[in-house]
Amino acid sequence: MGMMKTWDDYHGNDRAFRISKLAVCWATTTCVLLSLTRAEWCPAGCTCAESTRTVTCRGLQEGDLPMDFPHWVTNLIVKGNNISILLSEGFSPNGTRLELLNLSLSENNIQIVEGGAFLGLPHLRRLDLSGNRLISISVRAFSGLQELRYLCLNVSLTNLAVAQVSGALTTGTLRRLQWLELSGNRLKTIPLNTLDKLNLQVLDLTNNSIQTIGKENVSRLSEHKAIRVFLASNPFDCNCDLQSLYFWLQNASQCPDASLLQCSEPEGKRGTPLEKLHREDLDCTNADLEAVSYVFLGIVLALIGVVFLMVLYLNREGIKKWLNNIREACRDQMEVYHYRYEQDCDPRLANVAV
Predict the structure, then answer these.
(1) Please, which residues have CB within 8 angstroms of residue 135's CB and are 6 or more apart in sequence?
(2) Is the pLDDT of residue 95 over 70?
């Protein structure tokens, strides 16, 4: 038979049980508190995924960006909201900084980007502003983005913003920018007055309203041979103004989608690939000579007209006398015809004549 347990044995077991129970309660409480704390880190209307360091915010009721993000976030997606203005220092309240690497603000109806709107994001590499309706872009809009590599402005620029975007991109702040997307903005030319202050490797100008690229812009692209320019889905006007672009496409390899470029005008060349055009189709010399020939012909005809009028003026007396003589001769002739007519009409005069 086993030994019988004493009171001390039961008392010790009960004490151990109570200690274990307290430990379990403490652990449970700690987990709950941690969960509640973690939940407080994620802003209302957003979802947070620490495993991917991503915060996604959709359908925000407020028009302002939430700022109470978890400290670990590096990827922020704010999409489909109604944020009309990106305020100055909106990402650095009270001088704080976020360690964001990727920021997507697409389709938020953003209209105004104030100067210093992205201050507080010194490590940002990718910025997506596509699908907005930008009306005003401050020349200091991208200040503080020294590490930015990728910028997307597809389907975002209104006519007013097109005139401002060049100044905002070429202030010298974005010296490490490598990829710039400007697709779907109805651009008629390259909206960059210089490429020296950027480090572009890809420039996307597809699906715009570009009819030609002037000699100045072509020369600028030729000087920066590392740039790859995408130009598909533009309505090119295949006249002699396209000559500089045509030779650039023939002699350079900076346009990866060159085989997709087609003529939109004139009607006789519509749908013709630019690569299949002949040099004479874009020969500005012949067009200039033809224009000069028409001008020369007009000048010659004008001179002949002036000389003719001068001759008439200088011989006006002789011409007047000549016209009078012709008039007298015509009158005498008409009198003879009239007399003969009267004779033919009166039989008596006819008998007398016989």
Answers:
(1) 111, 112, 158, 160, 161
(2) no
- Closest C-alpha to 238, from 269, 280, 271: 269
Q: State which amino acid sits at residue 250.
A: Q
CA dist 226 and 102 (Å) reads 25
**Eight-state DSSP code of residue 295:** H
Pairing of strands 126-128, 136-137: unpaired
Handedness of CA 193, 198, 201, 207 (dihedral sign): negative
Token digits for 351? 């008998």
Q: What span, in angstroms and rounded, lies between the C-alpha atoms of 201 and 26?
A: 57
Whether the ω angle into residue 191 lies within 30 degrees of 0, i.e. cis, is no
CA-based nearest residue to 204, from 246, 139, 155: 155
Q: Is the pLDDT of residue 349 over 60?
A: no
Per-residue burial over 203-224, b if 16 or more Cβ lie within 10 Å, else e, is bbbbbbebbbbeeebbebbeeb
pLDDT 10s digits, 220-276: 999 999 999 999 999 999 998 899 999 999 998 999 999 999 999 988 899 999 988
Average pLDDT over residues 37-64: 79
Kindly state the tokens that stand for 277: 């055009």
Q: Are 174 and 195 in contact (CB under 8 A)?
A: no
Percent with pLDDT over 90 in the chain: 49
What three-state secondary structure class fits 264?
Answer: strand
Residue listed under structure tokens 């502003």: 129
Mean pLDDT for the stretch of residues 20-24: 51
Those residues with Cβ within 8 angstroms of residue 287's Cβ, 6 or more apart along the chain or in another chain: 239, 240
For residues 246 and 262, what is the distance between their CA atoms, to the nearest angstrom? 11
Longest dimension (CA), the chain: 192
Contact (CB, 8 A) for 131 and 160: no
DSSP 260: G
CA dist., res. 128 & res. 101, Å (int): 12
